[in-house]
Amino acid sequence: GISFLDNSSTKWTIGNDGSTDEFHMRVGYGVYGVTDEFSLNSAGNLTLLDDTASSGTQGGSIRLVSNDGAAMADDERLGSIEFAGAEDGSNTITVGARIDAICDAGWSASENGAALLFYTTDGNASQSEALRLDSDQLAVFAGGITSTAAANAFGTTDFNNAAITNVGDID
User: Fold this and answer.
1) Could you tell me if 96 and 85 are in contact, meaning their C-beta atoms sit under 8 angstroms apart?
2) Does residue 107 surpass a pLDDT of 90?
């Protein structure tokens, strides 16, 4: 591996541990091991590790950032996670589902509204929005909501202070 030092103290180490097909990166250590902060292997498994004491504010984290030097505008995408696979023997990769984070307002020092959009794929790689969770904490489903549970499986439902809006037919 290659180590980057500062005042003779290892700050970063990158490379292969020699016994596996994994690429490793460590911060503040000189030897690879079970506490690597980042590892990626040929099977496509990515591991990000937070080895600090666990709490409500700790844990592995991925941060997707959009920054072109200007404030984010309404409907601009902050980031996306795609789930894809091969549709044939020629390595044609098609997205089966994805999650997008978009701004649902222009951003400023006092406004950072965002929504999560969940997409599914049907037919020939045709992606469509299935669910939107917006900054007003509303869930908007593109299709009907189906439950296979008995009507009283979850006990009594309290609809006080709840708003149910019909945007289509209720069967």
Assistant:
1) yes
2) yes
